[in-house]
Amino acid sequence: MTAFPPFLGFPERLTEGHTPRMVIFGAGHGSTYPGKDSSAYHSAANAIRAASQDDTALVEHWDFDLGGPLFDGKPVCCVDTGDIPTTMYDNAGNRARIEARTRAVLALPALPIVLGGDCSVTIPFLAGFADHGPVWILQIDAHIDWRDEVHGERHGYSSPMRRASEMSHVAGIVQVGLRSVGSARLTDIEAARHYGSRFVTAREVHTQGVEAALRHIPEGARVVVTLDCDSLDPSIMPGVAARTPGGLTYTQVIDLIAGLSKCASIAGFDLVELYPPADIDSLSALTAARIIVNVIGTLVRQV
Predict the structure, then answer these.
(1) Within a domain: residue 29?
(2) Residue 138 confidence (pLDDT)
(3) Is residue 291 part of a domain?
(4) Total number of domains in the chain
(5) Which residues pair with 205 in a beta bridge?
(6) DSSP for residue 71
(7) In the chain, how many H helices and how many E strands?
(8) Which residues are CB-contacts of 87 (< 8 A; sequence separation ≥ 6)?
(9) What is the per-residue pLDDT across 80-134, written as a single tens digit (0 to 9) for each?
C-alpha cells in the first residue's frame, strides 16, 4: 500500500488484465554535488500530489484547458506508483533505480511521467529510453544544462543535456525558455551548438509563440519532454532555486505540450526542480500539478 495521497486520487494499479497508458512515479534524488544539501527536493513530488487533491472529485468534469474531461470520457488509464527509493549522495544507486523504473514502465508498455527531484534525475530517466530510440528531447528550461562536470560530478543538475547529447538513442535536442545567466560558460554554449542543439529563448516564445520551438521538431518524431520549473516565470512558479524574471507563462507551456502532440509523439515526460521551501502559498505546486494534468490529458488524446 502507498503511504501518500496519489496524484488526483489515481489508483496504484489498474484492475487485473488492464495495462495503464501512463505511469507516474517520483524520484526525490538523483546525483547530488559534494557538500550540497538537496534534501528539500525529496518532498517535491508529494507537494505536487497534495496540490492535486482538491480536484480528485472533478476528474470527470469539463476541463477548459483540454476541451473536455481529463480522460475524454474513457476509463482512467493513469496510475501513480509512488516514489522510488532514493538517497541523497547515493548517486550511482539513484541513477540505477531511476533508469530501471523507467525501463520497466516502457516495457509494459506505458508512458512514464516522473516527478523530481532536481535536474540530475533527468539523466537516468533519459538513459532509460536506450532501447526505445531514436528519441528527440524537448527541454523546457531557463538554462542549457551543458556543463561537463561540476566539482568532479558529471551527472549533476548542470549536466543533463550534455550527458543526453552523448546517448546514441538521442537524435536531437531542442531547448526552449532560455534566458538570463546560469552556469554555462562560452565553451558550454559552443559545445551545445557544435552538437546541433536548437536554442529558443523565452523572449522568442513571447514574440513568436510556441511555434518558435515546435518548428525545430521533425514531423512524427518521438519526443521526451523534460520540464524544469524555473522555465516558468517566478510570478507563477516562485518555488524554484533560481528565480529568473521573463519566464514562460502557464499558457505557453501547455500550448507547447499540446502543440507538440499534434506534430510529434510524446514518449515520456519529467517535471523537475520544484523547490518546496521557496514556494509561496503552494502556488508552484498547484501550477506544477496543472501542468501534469495537461500532460495526461494531452497523452490521452494523442493518437
Answers:
(1) yes
(2) 98
(3) yes
(4) 1
(5) none
(6) T
(7) 9, 8
(8) 29, 93, 94
(9) 999 999 999 999 999 999 999 999 999 999 999 999 999 999 999 999 999 999 9
**Domain encompassing residue 151:** 7-301
Please state the rounded mean pLDDT for residues 137-148.
97
User: What pLDDT does 182 receive?
Assistant: 81
- 170-178 and 135-140 as β-strands: parallel, antiparallel, unpaired? parallel
Residue 203 lies in a domain: yes
pLDDT of res. 289: 98
pLDDT for res 2: 46
Peptide bond into 6 cis (omega under 30): no
- The answer to whether residues 158 and 145 touch, using CB atoms and an 8 Å cutoff, is yes
- 248 part of a folded domain: yes
Report the pLDDT averaged over residues 266-273: 98
> Distance between CA 234 and CA 69 in Å, rounded?
29
pLDDT higher than threshold 90 for residue 45: yes
Strand order in the sheet with 135-140: 78-83, 22-27, 111-116, 265-272, 222-228, 135-140, 170-178, 198-201
Q: Please report the beta strands in 135-283, taking only residues with DSSP state E, as ranges in sequence order.
A: 135-140, 170-178, 198-201, 222-228, 265-272
Orientation of helix 283-301 relative to helix 250-263, angle to 10°: 20
229, 139 contact by CB (below 8 A): no
* pLDDT at residue 179, rounded to an integer: 97
Residue 82 and residue 4: Cα distance in Å, rounded? Answer: 7
- Let me know: does 228 contact 119? Beta carbons within 8 Å: yes
Report pTM.
0.96
Q: Give one word for 43, left, alpha or beta, with left for phi > 0 and alpha for psi -120 to 50.
A: alpha
66 pLDDT more than 50: yes
Residues whose CB is less than 8 angstroms from the CB of residue 207 and which lie 6 or more positions away in sequence, other chains included: none
Mean pLDDT of all residues in the chain? Answer: 96
CATH for 188: 3.40.800.10
Left if phi > 0, otherwise alpha if psi is -120 to 50, otherwise beta: which for 99? alpha
